[in-house]
Structures are given as C-alpha cells and as structure tokens.
Amino acid sequence: MNDLKQNCNCANKGQSKQSRTSGGRRTSNRNDSVPAFSPAKTQSQTIFISAHGPEPYAANIRQATLQNQNFRTAFWTGTHLQMTLMLIPPGGEIGLEVHPEVDQFLYIEMGQGLFRGGNRQDTLNLQANVSENSGIFVPAGTWHNVINTQGVPLKLFSIYAPPQHPSGTVHHTKAEAEAAESIAKV
User: Which of 47, 84, 98, 133 has the most CB atoms around its CB within 10 Å?
Assistant: First the structure.
C-alpha cells in the first residue's frame, strides 16, 4: 500500500512523493491550512453527528450512518456536493420524489428494502431489492423511492450533487421532512 501512496498523483503539486503521505497521515508542512488526519477508528467510536462542511472533513461514514437516529440528517454540505444520513423505519419509505437538477447516490448500510425508479411518476419500471452494501444511482429527473421491507430500520447515506437540503437540516421523522419541504415550496 505504501508503494501505491508514493506513486499517486496528488493534487498538491510541488510536493515530493515522500512528503505526501506517511502511514495514512499528511506529513508535508507546505500547506498547514489543511489539517492532518489519521484513518478513522472502525469500532466503538462515537461520531459527532452534526452539520459539517464546506471545510474538508474525514469520518467513518458507516459508523455515522449506523448511529443516526433521524429520518434525515445533513451530515456534510459543500458547494457542489452534500451527504445526508437517513433512517427509514420498518414499513416506511423515503417517499416518491424527483430531483430535476440533482444527481443522487444512495448506499445501504443496514436493512433491506425495495428501490423503485422511472422517468415518470406513474411509470416506475425499475425495481430492485436492496440490502447492506447496495448502491443506488439516481440521475437527475428520475422519479424514485426506497421502501423498507423488513422489521428493522433501514439505514443509508445519500449523496446529492448539487446539495438538495439546507446545511444543518435535521428531520426527526418523515412527517417533519414533508412539512419542511411543503413550507419551502411556498
């Protein structure tokens, strides 16, 4: 793995290959405005689930997703990208929706569900069973929904490009999310 790190094309041009990384940490002092970080712990680490961004941020996404207890939490929001954490209760769903100018990627961390998608609200011709480690790609303009088909919460993270929700958004329930979205449309 060190060979791979030493031979990468890093964005910080002008740094020597040896100064870019060392054991997962940034070692160069050429740009001290970028914080050095170590790889996140994988067990028993509590992730501070709050609004992050647009500054660079590193976290164990799986752990953050599993710890999330809200229907939707905007975890990191930048200028062109956003990541939200979601919890869909047993028998619940995200709700049929379309984002006309936003691409979306959803990744299932826990649970099982049904993804439905299509070009029209009344024609959802794509159906797929999804479960842990499933990724779902939703191009802008595609109607879609994810339905929890099991008796345990479905936990996932979603990446939007560009951002879909205001930075810091927290919706404890789907009803709260729907109320906030109806107010935003007015």
Answer: 84
Round to whole Å and give the CA distance between 174 and 148.
13
Residue 45 is classified by DSSP as P
Same domain, 95 and 17: no
- Alpha-helix runs per DSSP H in the chain: 2-6, 17-20, 61-67, 174-185
Split at pLDDT 50, 70, 90, the class of 82 is: very high
Q: Is the pLDDT of residue 22 over 70?
A: no
Q: Is 25 part of any domain?
A: yes
DSSP E strand stretches across the chain? 21-22, 25-26, 72-77, 82-88, 103-110, 112-118, 126-131, 135-138, 143-148, 154-161, 170-171
Residue at 136 is within a domain: yes
Provide the 10 A C-beta neighbour count for residue 64.
Answer: 23
